[in-house]
Design brief:
The complex is a heterotrimer of chains A (188), B (588) and C (148).
Chain A: H1 11-50, H2 55-77, H3 82-108, H4 121-129, H5 132-156, H6 160-187
Helix pairs in contact in A: 2-3, 2-5, 3-6, 5-6
Chain B: H1 2-75, H2 81-102, H3 106-124, H4 133-176, H5 179-229, E1 231-237, E2 242-245, H6 247-252, H7 264-267, H8 276-289, E3 292-300, E4 307-318, E5 324-332, H9 334-385, H10 392-423, E6 429-432, H11 433-443, H12 445-451, E7 454-457, E8 462-465, H13 467-483, E9 492-501, E10 515-523, H14 555-565, E11 569-575, E12 579-587
Parallel strand pairs in B: 7-9
Antiparallel strand pairs in B: 1-2, 1-5, 3-4, 4-5, 6-8, 9-10, 10-12, 11-12
Chain C: E1 6-11, H1 15-28, E2 32-37, H2 40-48, E3 57-60, H3 69-78, E4 86-91, H4 96-105, E5 109-112, H5 117-129, H6 132-135
Parallel strand pairs in C: 1-2, 1-3, 3-4, 4-5
Helix pairs in contact in C: 1-5, 2-3
The chains are: A mainly alpha (188), B alpha+beta (588), C alpha/beta (148).
């Protein structure tokens, strides 16, 4: 029969046990840090992606803006009644303001927008035969087209500045459209 | 001793592993940092690379725009608008790309804004209708100027990038130049420590293995010892009353080793019914006093149904955990018991025999004396009364009868003495040999006076013995000396004694430090040949015929018997015609 | 002695010994009256008998049938009537044990039966002529001398 009993209940065991928990905690925290640091990178990228503006969109609204300005400027060169002139002026002013806002957004987002209309041929064709009524009509069409653009923008864009601009412009343009249409009615 | 060594090692191993673990964590963190920095550097390099490319492309796209614009201005063909618009699109893409690459670096953002402004300004000069030639010239010139500033700005950006990169590189190199060294040295240290730990573990493991082997051997030899010594051991755990038996305990009970599970209940199964109580009492004592008495009892062997005698004892043993165990040993003492019984029987027989023989001796001697005495008395009466009427030859015959009867009487007396020497059961006392000598001399006073002998003795020691036997001893030896004294010289007997240690006297054949009193009787008588030194102590052995010197040959045998009774030794030394010396050694 | 002659009793089972004894005293020409008994019982009966005149000296053999000398000695010493009687043990045995025993039990003298008639007469004469008045008083082993 062999009796061979060795066992120790000593302080060392309990300290080791304490060590164990601390070590485990350390390990756990280190691994957590590692994981979280990986995650952060991903988030940053997402954010960056989301707030991009499509340059083409901005260029389009800039161009349509220029078109409206050009048309109204050209219209105001010919004779017309005051009320009409006021309307055109308002529209032009609004659009110059809009142009500045668009330019600001473009600047903030490093987008080059056209300063002038390059392809003026279609306009030129129109302008040679225009009269006030046609101008009004053209302006309305342009404004409606703009409106469509802005509506699309409101839905599609993630950029807050652009969204705000679009919503403002929508209301503005709608107002202008009603004014113009009133004016058109008067002309008829 | 071994336990503490192991314990130390366990602490050592634990600390070794802990250190190794921390080193690993340290290494991991250093590596992590290093890799992270590497990542950053590579990111920066990629960054710089992208920026350089994009900026280069930007310039080239603007050049494309210029070309397109020039073509359009020159030919007014909207064909040339296409590359221009593409160029613008590309420029925008480049800017997006640059913006993404730069991310949130404020300095770079500033620079990019500057570049954008310049580009924007340049694009503003891409008109297609000019109000005047001057405007046309101015525009182109301004365009060129802006282009130059743009290039400068772009170069600035690029150089800033490169500076940043090189500083980062320097910082990285500075921070991490040591890293490989640190890592490697840490690696070495940890390898070293692990190696130490490893060797320690292996050593401990080997030690344990060896311990185990030794234990197994010990276990085996203990098992064999149990079988040989006919004993078995058992263990009782007091708390849960569980038993375990060694293999031989089972065999002692006549069962196969570990054939059943021993409990307090089946403990009594094998016990002889008369002795069951002994065991139950003993086990009760465990409960009450936590001790186990030495008990003897009988069991009935399970396989052969023979009765065996067992002896059991046990002791409490408390282990390190505080568990109380009773470790017991049971021995089969049947052989011993039987032998003891046999010995006791034989002893009784012998004692009885001895007693009878002694009785016989004594009674015989005594009863033999009776008729002898009568013969002698009657003869003396005849001699007295019929002195006158007897013839000379008749008187002579009667004398011879007397002599013969005398001899017989002496012989019977001696035999009686001899038997008495044996018979004595008296206890040993402290005897002063001077008294003994004095008494002996007074007993022999007649003889001494007759021979005109001189007996000398000086301060004799004390011994343990029986008074009358020692007196007899002295009487026999002194009378012997007187008997064999020279006729022409006065007989002198010198008695002396001294203390000796056993190992100093080789003829005692005793190596111990026991003390003896050596009594010497030296006489100046006729002596004897040394070759007869041992024979003279034999019963009925004589060196002379009875005609020369009277004697029965019993006296010295009696002396030897007395000395042996006292657990002593007697030796005789003689030189013919010079005398004899008797040496008696008696234990103190 | 109170009377002119000394009363002696011998208790011995051996016929020859009794003869030696009485013959010895006859030849001694001391004023003695000797009577003998054959064993212990006879001795006690004789002593206890009402008409008996108690002897001065009793010679007591140890080895007797029916009642041994030791037993008689015990009985005699136990009886205050017999306290003045001198007891002489007259035995063949010379064993120390017997001597010791009889001394302890109160015998005054121990005589080993001699093997010579002449010796016997000497001893008996000495015993009888001793001045017993001094000796019967104290039990002293030195006085308990006559181991003859």
């Amino acid at each position: 029969m062999s009796f061979y009993l060795i066992s120790h209940k000593t302080n060392l065991m309990s300290t080791i046990k304490r060590y164990k928990t601390i070590l485990f905690f350390l390990l756990f925290s280190i691994s957590c840090m590692l994981i979280t640091s990986c995650e952060k990178k991903n988030k940053e990228e997402k954010n960056i992606v989301n707030t991009k503006i499509d340059a083409q969109v901005l260029i389009e609204i800039a161009e349509s803006n220029l078109k409206v300005v050009a048309v109204t400027q050209k219209a105001m060169e010919s004779e017309m009644e005051n009320s009409t002139r006021i309307v055109f002026q308002k529209i032009e002013n609004d659009h110059i303001e809009l142009k500045n806002k668009i330019k600001k957004i473009a600047k903030d987002n490093f987008i080059i927008i056209p300063n002038t209309l390059y392809d003026t041929k279609p306009l030129k064709v129109f302008i040679s035969e225009a009269n006030t009524y046609l101008y009004l009509k053209k302006t309305t069409d342009l404004l409606l087209a703009e409106l469509e653009y802005y509506k699309k923008i409101v839905i599609s864009t993630q950029n807050t500045a652009l969204k705000t601009l679009a919503t403002e412009s929508i209301t503005n343009i709608k107002k202008n459209i009603t004014i113009i249409q009133k004016e058109i009615k008067l002309q008829e | 001793m071994l336990k503490s060594k192991l314990f130390d090692s366990i602490g050592f191993i634990r600390s070794v592993f802990l250190i190794a673990f921390f080193i690993l964590i340290f290494l991991a963190s250093i590596t992590y940092r290093h890799i992270k920095e590497l990542d950053e550097i590579s990111d920066s390099i990629m960054n710089t690379y992208e920026i350089s490319i994009e900026l280069g492309q930007l310039i080239s796209y603007i050049k494309d725009a210029e070309t397109g614009h020039r073509g359009y201005v020159i030919t007014n063909d909207s064909l040339y608008l296409e590359p221009f618009i593409n160029a613008r699109k590309n420029v925008n893409n480049t800017f997006q790309a640059l913006n993404t690459t730069i991310k949130s670096d404020s300095i770079k953002q500033e620079q990019l804004k500057k570049v954008y402004d310049l580009v924007d300004k340049r694009f503003s000069y891409f008109k297609n209708n000019f109000s005047s030639k001057k405007e046309f010239n101015d525009d182109f010139r301004n365009g060129k100027i802006i282009m130059d500033s743009l290039r400068t700005e772009v170069n600035n950006m690029l150089s800033t990038e490169n500076k940043l990169l090189s500083s980062k590189d320097k910082l990285y190199k500075y921070n991490n130049s040591n890293t490989p060294l640190i890592v490697f040295s840490t690696f070495l240290i940890s390898i070293l420590i692990l190696g130490l730990g490893y060797t320690r573990i292996i050593k401990n493991y080997n030690d344990l293995i060896n311990q185990n082997i030794r234990l197994k051997i010990f276990d085996e030899s203990s098992k064999q010892a149990e079988i040989l010594g006919k004993y078995g051991s058992w263990l009782l755990n007091i708390k849960d009353q569980s038993f375990s038996y060694s293999d031989n305990k089972f065999r002692l009970l006549g069962c196969k080793p570990q054939s059943f599970h021993p409990t307090l209940e089946n403990l009594l199964d094998n016990i002889h019914p008369d002795d069951k109580e002994i065991l139950t009492d003993a086990f009760k004592q465990i409960e009450e006093k936590e001790s186990f008495p030495l008990i003897r009892y009988r069991i009935i062997k399970k396989d052969t149904l023979e009765i065996r005698h067992f002896r059991t004892t046990a002791k409490i043993f408390i282990d390190k955990l505080g568990n109380k165990n009773m470790i017991g040993t049971t021995q089969d003492i049947t052989e011993d018991y039987n032998k003891t019984q046999l010995i006791e029987l034989r002893n009784k027989e012998l004692e009885q025999n001895n007693k009878e023989l002694m009785e016989f001796n004594h009674v015989a001697s005594h009863d033999l004396q009776e008729p002898l005495r009568k013969i002698q008395t009657f003869i003396s009466r005849i001699e007295d009364k019929e002195k006158d009427t007897l013839s000379e030859s008749a008187k002579g015959y009667f004398e011879k009868i007397q002599e013969a009867s005398n001899r017989m009487r002496i012989l019977i007396d001696d035999l009686l003495q001899y038997s008495r020497t044996n018979r004595s059961e008296k206890a040993f006392e402290n005897i002063d040999l001077n008294h003994v000598a004095t008494n002996a001399i007074s007993e022999l006073s007649e003889n001494i006076a007759e021979k005109k002998a001189v007996i000398n003795f000086e301060k004799l020691h004390q011994v343990q013995g029986i008074q009358f036997q020692l007196e007899q001893l002295f009487i026999n030896i002194i009378s012997n000396s007187l008997k064999y004294s020279k006729t022409d010289e006065t007989a002198i007997v010198n008695i002396s004694s001294k203390k000796v240690k056993a190992f100093k006297v080789p003829k005692l054949k005793d190596d111990s430090k026991k003390e003896f009193v050596k009594i010497s009787f030296k006489d100046n008588g006729l002596g004897f040949e040394q070759e007869y030194a041992e024979k003279i102590f034999l019963l009925f052995n004589r060196l002379h015929g009875k005609k020369e010197y009277p004697g029965t040959g019993v006296g010295l045998a009696i002396c030897k018997k007395i000395v042996e009774n006292h657990k002593g030794y007697i030796f005789a030394k003689g030189k013919p015609n010079e005398g004899a010396e008797f040496e008696i050694y008696l234990p103190v | 002695m109170q009377k002119d002659f000394i009363l002696i009793t011998l208790a011995d089972d051996d016929e020859d010994d009794r003869m030696f004894f009485t013959d010895a005293f006859e030849e001694l020409k001391i004023n003695t009256v000797v009577n003998t008994v054959n064993d212990g019982v006879a001795l006690m009966n004789f002593l206890n008998a009402a008409e008996t005149v108690l002897p001065n000296i009793i010679f007591l053999d140890l080895n007797m049938p029916l009642k041994s000398g030791i037993e008689c000695l015990k009985e005699i010493k136990a009886n205050p009537k017999f306290k003045d009687i001198v007891i002489a043990i007259y035995s063949t045995s010379s064993s120390e044990e017997d001597i010791e025993n009889t001394f302890v039990l109160g015998a005054n003298i121990y005589i080993k039966k001699p093997n010579n008639f002449g010796k016997l007469k000497e001893i008996l004469s000495e015993v009888v002529t001793l001045n017993w008045q001094y000796i019967t008083s104290g039990l002293n082993k030195d006085n308990f001398l006559l181991r003859m």
